[in-house]
Amino acid sequence: MMAGGGVRFLVLILTVAICGAASVFQPISDAHRSAALDVFVPVDGSYKSLEEAYEALKTLEILGIEKKSDLSSATCENVVKVLGSSSSTLKDAFYALNVNGILKCKIGEAGPKDIVSQLQAGVKDAKLLLDFYYSVRGLVLVKEQFPGTDISLGDAEAIFRSIKALSQSDGRWRYSSNNPESSTFAAGLAYETLAGVISLAPSELDPSLIQTLKKGIVKLFDSIQKFDDGTFYFDEKSVDASQGPISTTASVIRGLTSFAASESTGLNLPGDKIVGLAKFFLGVGIPGDAKDFFNQIDALACLEDNKFSVPLILSLPSTVISLTKKEPLKVKVSTVLGSKAPTLSVKLTQALSSKSVDSSVINNQELKFDADSATYFLDSFPKNFDVGKYTFVFEILLDDSAHEKVYITEAQTKVPIAATGVISIENAEIAVLDSDIGSVESQKKLDLTKDGAVSLSANHLQKLRLSFQLTTPIGNAFKPHQAFFKLKHESQVEHIYLVKTSGKKAELVLDFLGLVEKLYYLSGKYEIQLTIGDASMENSLLSNIGHIELDLPERPEKAPRPPLQSTEPYSRYGPKAEISHIFRIPEKLPAKQLSLVFLGVIVLPFIGFLIGLTRLGVNIKSFPSSTGSAISALLFHGGIGAVLLLYVLFWLKLDLFTTLKALSLLGVFLLFVGHRTLSQLAAASNKLKSA
Amino acid sequence: MARSSTSKDAQDLFHSLRSAYLSTPTNLKIIDLYVCFAVFTALIQVAYMALVGSFPFNSFLSGVLSCIGTAVLAVCLRIQVNKENKEFKDLAPERAFADFVLCNLVLHLVIINFLG
C-alpha cells in the first residue's frame, strides 16, 4: 500500500463562482479551547463511559490542551479492566483501545493477544454494520498501538463484500440486512470500516471493488445539502433520525478521510464541497453539547490533514475600516484549526459598494504579507474610497511551489466591510419664517458640536426651518440613517420629526398652523434637540440646540388632551398595577355544627328501624344449617355487602368505568350465589308446605 | 253528642285498623317498617334542605330519590310477597326478593353516581 507520497504541483484557481451571501468564518481559536475545558472535564473526576472519555480526550488532544493526570489514571484503570476482561463487548473494547491510543496506558503482556482473538472472532461472526465497525477498527487500533502483534484478517475480500452488501444504490448504507432503513451516518461508518479492511488485508484487494466504492462516494455527494451562505452538510433522509446534521456530516468526513488514507489510487472529491463542509463546521460556533463539540473538532481535524484536499479559510479580525485612523485592513488565511497556511497570495479583486453594485471601487489589488503576524494587509485605499457599506471580494492564489498536501480554497470569499469616517456638518441654521410671505423673521446659525443656547419665539402662523449640509470626507453627499428633530414641552410632552435629505442638503420645515392640533394646543417653552446618526459616521451627535417659545391658540373643547407623562421616564418598564381577579362567589354553606346535627338526626330513623325489628321479634332461625347452603347464604350476604362497599369506594375515589368493571364481576358472582341460596330457600319452604 | 260520637267512631276505627294490622304476617311488618324508615329519612333530608338551601342540588335529589326509590321497591316487594294477593300467587317470594335486591343495587349505583 503506497501512501500518497510524492510532490504535487497544483495551482488551484477555481473559476466557478460560488453565489452566496457574504459572511465571515473564523477558524478555531482560543475561545474554543477555553470552552472545551468547561464542556469536557467532568466535575466528579471520572467519565461516565469509555465513549464519553474517548470523545473528551480526543477533542482535548486535537485542541492541544493538557490532560489532567488524575483523570488519566482513573480512565486508564477502566481501560485496563475492559481490555483485560474476556467478556467485554466489542463496543467497549473499541472505545477502550481508542482511549488507550491517546493516554497510552500500561496494558499487560497478555492484553493485546486476548483482545486480538476477541476482535477476530467478532469480525468472523459479525452480521451488523456496527459489529463490523467495532471489530475491524479495533484491530486497526491494535496494529497501531502494539506493533508486531500478529493480526490476520482471514478472508479480507469476503469481509469486504459482506460489508459492501449492506450498501444501497443512493450511496447510503444500511445497519443490518434485516432493516431496510438506510442512513448517511452508517455510510460514514462503513467507509471507515472498509478502509480498515483495506489496510489490514494481507494482499491487495480487487481494484474493481474499490472502484465501485468510489462511485458510491460520488452518489453520496449527490445527496449533500447546502445553506445559502455556501456551507454544505449531510443530513439524514428521515425526519426522526437519531443523528443530526453535525454528527452525520462528521461521520461521513471521518469515513472519507480514512478511506482516502488507506487507498493508493487517490480520491477526488469536489473541492468547493470540501470548503463548504469546512465552513459548515466553523459556522457552528462553540457547541454546548459534548457530542456536537467532539464531532465538530474531529471533523475539522480530519479536514486539516487528509489525502484529498485541505481547505484554507480566509478570515478577518476586524471588518471595519476607519478612514480617519488610517489603519490597514488585515486578512488572515489559515487552516480550519488555525495552523499556518502555505505560501500564497491574497488579492482583493473587487470592492462593491452597496450604493452602486456593478462598479467596483478597488480592482485587483494585491495584499502585502507581514511574516511576523502571518497576516495580509491592505494599507492604501484609493482616493475615491468613501464611507459606507461594501462587499469585498477576495481571491486566494496558491504558490506554484511544491506542497505535500493538496490545498483548496473558496473561489471567491465575499466579506461585508463597513467604512467609517468623520462626516462634516456645515451651514447648520435654524430660522423662523412668516408663513404666507416666506420672509425670515429670525435666523440663527448653529454649531452642532456644542450645545447651544439658541432662543427663538414663534406663533401658530409661522414656520420653523432647520437646515444643514452633510458631506463625506471626500466631499460626496451623505444621507444619514437617522436624523431626528425633537421638540419637548415643559410638561414633558415630546414630538419627533424626521429631517429629510436631498442631495447634500438636509432640511426640515415645521408649519405650526397645521401642527397646532398635534401639539395639543400647548403653548410655552419647547426644548429643541437634534440627533444625527449612522453606522458609517464616527461623529454621530445628539445636540441640544436651545429652546423655542411657541404661542398657540386656546384649546377648543373637543380637542384631544395630551397624554399623561409620567415623571419617571422608565416607569413604563416598572411593575404594572395589581390585577384583582373576580372569582365566583362561593356558595354559602351551612355551619359545620348544623350539618353534624343533621347527620345525627338522619341516623335516628335507622335506629328506629332496628328497634322496631327487635320489637317485631326478627330472628335468623331459618338461616340454613347445612354447610353447603350456609356457605352460599354467607356468600350471598357477603356479595351484597361487597357491592355496597364498592359503591362507597366509587363515591370516595373511583370513577364510573372502574366501578362498572368491578360491578360486572361482582354482579355475575352474586347472581350465581344468590340463585343458589334463594332456590335452596324456596326448596326448603316448599318442603315445609308440602310436609 | 255528635262530637263525642265522631271521636268514638274515630277511636273505634283506629282500634279496628290496629287489630287488623296486628294479624299481618311478620315479614310484611318488616317491609312496612322499612318503608317508614325510608320515608322518614327522606323527610328529614327535605327539612334540612329547606333550612340551609339547596346548594348541591344534585346531592339533595340523589339522597331523596334514594329513599323514595327504595321505599317504592319495598312496596312492590310487599305486593308480590303478600299471600293474600291473588295476582302474584305463582310468583315465589324468593324471586320477588331477588328482584328487590337487584333493583336496589341498580338504583344505588345511579344514586351514588349522581351524588357527586
From TrEMBL, chain A:
Compartments where found: Endoplasmic reticulum membrane
Domain Ribophorin II second, chain residue ranges per copy: 312-418
Disulfide bond keyword on record: no
GO biological process, one term: protein N-linked glycosylation
Transmembrane segments: 594-618, 630-650, 656-673
Biological role stated in the UniProt entry: Subunit of the oligosaccharyl transferase (OST) complex that catalyzes the initial transfer of a defined glycan (Glc(3)Man(9)GlcNAc(2) in eukaryotes) from the lipid carrier dolichol-pyrophosphate to an asparagine residue within an Asn-X-Ser/Thr consensus motif in nascent polypeptide chains, the first step in protein N-glycosylation. N-glycosylation occurs cotranslationally and the complex associates with the Sec61 complex at the channel-forming translocon complex that mediates protein translocation across the endoplasmic reticulum (ER). All subunits are required for a maximal enzyme activity.
Quaternary structure note: Component of the oligosaccharyltransferase (OST) complex.
The protein's name: Dolichyl-diphosphooligosaccharide--protein glycosyltransferase subunit 2
Automatic annotation (TrEMBL), chain B:
Topology relative to the membrane: Multi-pass membrane protein
GO biological process: protein N-linked glycosylation
GO cellular component terms, A-Z: oligosaccharyltransferase complex
KW Methyltransferase (keyword) present: no
UniProt subunit comment: Component of the oligosaccharyltransferase (OST) complex.
Biological function: Subunit of the oligosaccharyl transferase (OST) complex that catalyzes the initial transfer of a defined glycan (Glc(3)Man(9)GlcNAc(2) in eukaryotes) from the lipid carrier dolichol-pyrophosphate to an asparagine residue within an Asn-X-Ser/Thr consensus motif in nascent polypeptide chains, the first step in protein N-glycosylation. N-glycosylation occurs cotranslationally and the complex associates with the Sec61 complex at the channel-forming translocon complex that mediates protein translocation across the endoplasmic reticulum (ER). All subunits are required for a maximal enzyme activity.
Entry's family note: Belongs to the DAD/OST2 family.
Name this polypeptide is given: Dolichyl-diphosphooligosaccharide--protein glycosyltransferase subunit DAD1
